[in-house]
Amino acid sequence: MINYVSDRFFVNVPAIRTSDRRGNMSVPKILSAADQEQPVAVIHHLAPKHAGFDDAAHAASADPGLDRAMSMFGAIADQISQTYQDLSGRVNRLANELDSVSLNRQREHEDKARIANRLKTLLQALPVGIVVLDARGSVQECNPAAVDLLGEPLHGERWVEIIQRCFAPKADDGHEVSLKDGRRLSIQTCSLENAPGQLIVLSDLTETRELQSRLSRSERLSSMGRMVASLAHQIRTPLSAAMLYAGHLSQPELDGSLRVKCAQKLMSRLTHLEQQVRDMLIFAKGDAPLAQRIACAELFTEIQAAAEPEAQRKQVPVQWSIDCGEREILCNKDALVGAVLNLFNNALEAVKGADQPQVEVILSAPGQGFICLEVRDNGVGFEPEDGPRLLEAFYTTKSHGTGLGLAVAQGVAQAHHGRFFITSGGPGLGARAILTLPARHSA
Question: Could you list the residue ranges forming a coiled coil in this record (predicted)?
Answer without folding.
Answer: 77-104
